[in-house]
Design brief:
46% helix
Length: 246
């Protein structure tokens, strides 16, 4: 009886050591030291995880059809995961559903950025199925594509509630004012979402970044060629700056 009582007392004693914050006790047994060490390590891991874990940033890719959104998203995913996120095509509105890829860990100059890449359908004010007929699609397929693309735009706008930052991808060879949809800009401003404007296709002779800079003086702008991988170092530098504001 005495041995049992003494053992029970030791167990209660260890419990007081761990959880009574008003008193400080010294454990009497080796087992007591071991329990305290295990608990201490457990809480250290929790606190270190809270304060050092890198938050995943949901990064949305927005812009008009065929500006290179998916090409850029593919380039990033391919660089850091070895996999593409979606298909690309010369036919407008190839991306008609929001597609995502988790755990895209980008490294740049000793820093790591954990991304959730959100590739959205192209934003357009009008989608006419007849435009797809010029690309060789049959009428039924063209109508289906137009319907899916229209729904894709609605879904793209809804996803603004779930992104932390946005990259607006524009075709640097085209007039910026004809590419940017007022709805998307208004939603970005209203939600105060950090934005980086990317002028894509700088490998083409008609590319003109100065037009983009004049059109969007309030935003940071970087020129790239997602297809050829040109100026990606500067892009990643701008991406990390964008992440700090997210």
């Amino acid at each position: 009886m005495c041995e049992v009582s003494e053992r029970q007392n030791k167990r209660r004693y260890i419990g007081i050591i761990l959880f009574d914050s008003k008193k400080v006790y010294k454990p009497r047994t080796r087992k007591g030291f071991m329990v305290i060490r295990v608990v201490k390590n457990f809480f250290q891991r929790i606190f270190l995880g809270i304060f050092t874990r890198k938050r995943s940033i949901a990064l949305g890719f927005y812009g008009p059809p065929n500006s290179g959104k998916t090409t850029l998203a593919n380039k990033i995913c391919k660089d850091w995961t070895g996999e593409d996120i979606g298909k690309v095509s010369k036919i407008p509105h190839e991306t008609r559903k929001v597609q995502t890829k988790e755990e895209v860990k980008v490294e740049h100059k000793g820093k790591t950025l954990n991304l959730k890449v959100v590739d959205t359908p192209g934003i357009a004010t009008k989608i006419d199925y007849e435009d797809f007929l010029d690309f060789g699609l049959k009428k039924k397929d063209a109508q289906k594509r137009a319907k899916e693309a229209t729904q894709g735009i609605v879904d793209s706008i809804k996803w603004l509630d779930d992104v932390d930052a946005v990259i607006v991808v524009l075709d640097a060879t085209e007039n910026p004012y004809s590419q940017v949809n007022i709805t998307i800009i208004g939603n970005l401003v209203a939600r105060k979402i950090p934005v980086l404007v990317v002028g894509n296709k700088i490998d083409l002779k008609k590319a003109d970044l100065k037009r983009l800079e004049a059109a969007f003086p309030e935003y940071d702008i970087v020129g790239i060629s997602a297809k050829e991988g040109l100026n990606m170092e500067e892009f990643y530098e701008s991406l990390f700056k964008l992440a700090k504001r997210a």
